[in-house]
Amino acid sequence: MNDLHVIVPSGIDDPTRPSGGNVYDRRVCAGLAAIGWSVREHAVVGDWPVPDAAARAAVGAVLAALADDALVLIDGIVASVVPEVAAQQRLRVFVIVHMLHRGAAGDGLIEAAVLRAATGVIATSEWTRAQLVAQYGLDGHRIHVVEPGVDPAPLAVGSPDGGALLCVAAVTPVKGHDLLVPALAQIADLHWHCSCVGALDLDRGFAARVQRCAARSGIADRVRWVGARTGAALDEAYATADLLVLCSRTETYGMVVTEALARGVPVIAASVGGVPEALGGTDELPGILVPPGDPAALAGALRRWLGDPDLRQRLRRAAGERRASLTDWAGAADRLSGVLTAARV
User: Is the pLDDT of residue 6 over 70?
Assistant: First the structure.
């Protein structure tokens, strides 16, 4: 049996703090276990990615207790800010990079050192891989892209006017709700409502400001701030949506994009990071990409969606085609298993 030690942040299963990174870690580990890996999880307490000395010491203690040559998979939110990880040359360490932590880790020197010392790096998109090569000078051959999977889901019914808008993202500056609200205000003359699904308490001041902005713009009654949702409640949000709207300032992949496409729901999103990869598409994109940080461009795309029945039909058809090509979580786990198995040879 293949033994694998996985180090993740504590709270990985907290339903009030859902994140793509946590979902990724949980699902690929379950997938590895299902195909015969002995997965031993070590959840480390700390305020990641800004740990105190005790949190860093806890990671060091976990690593010190492992036998020589042990195979270790570490979430980057932990590894990238703990310099002790770079010293573990007796272990075979793989780091999953869900996002770059240059800001949290100061000038990025800690993260760069950790990733250079690692046996290998798991990136969740080709965009992330390219960033790691460009910013940190990593050998691209040591970076393995394992894109997130997605669960198959029933097709969303959709409404004739396309006015059920959905944003699935924690209400924080990086997710761009301060861009979304002004864009929605610019299309107040049209028929729509928007459900914002995501934690409201990660940056309470920011959440309060965007809600006040909605009120000042006269659209408070058309924008619902429903908080974090997981499981059946999140499924219901997607099932009743016509369009996913994502205004992020950065995304290494954008799992909510494929979660929407799995239900045949088109996407309007800022063209950042790995989002174009997640959106995919061939002859016609299953959505519209807009320049990042541009509420006017976002408003224009939304106006086109709401005002053009033919466009809605084309994008829904393209979303259905993209739906058929999505990789499930078993496929993602198989890909990761291949990478880790090669490291054991």
Answer: yes
